[in-house]
Design goal:
alpha/beta
Amino acid sequence: MIQIFPNSWDLARAAAEHFVARSPRTVAVSGGSTPKLLFELLADPNEPFRDQIPWSDIHFFWSDERHVPPDYPESNYRMAYEAMLSRVPVVPSNVHRVPSENPDAAEAAREYEQTLIETTHQSLPRLDLILLGLGPDGHTASIFPGSEVLHETKRLVAAPWVEKFQTHRITMTLPLLNNGASVVFLVSGAEKATILKEVLEGPEKYPAQAVKPTHGELLWMLDKDAASEIK
């Protein structure tokens, strides 16, 4: 399903309404400016969403993370913590950040996979809500074009080397992403218009196109600028 909104603010509000409606108990969040606006809305005491969410019941995970300590500016965890988690009554033990300060990215990925399994009590967790973004090269989470992670069938979390950034990233893999109950792409901005058109209407060659929930919903929430080139 594709939903288009006039601007990034309306997109974030609709995403907040979707969050409340789904009443998730397990959530995978992502980095980026669009999710940040969503997180700020959810935590705002002057908005209706904050009081409609059973914060103490929700377990938070990250769909991907940069290989940096959690206090670094680049950290997806830090963004979500500052924008939302530090401002709502979430149970600290229910916030499952990636141990990205571990110098061994592969070990951090293995540890995070085990955290997911132990927390959900499922060998292949079915997360209630997974938030994803779309990169200008068609990547999502930290699954980039040409990555070996595209062919992963067993691991739930991996630590691929990302050549364009000369660093490892830690990311949920397609088996886990595609097992989600509700998988939501949040995409805004005119700079995403061309790649969005290719992902939604072109032949399959981008990682984002490999996100196809096996028995869940796939929702693209777009603002008008990002959707300007799609039919």
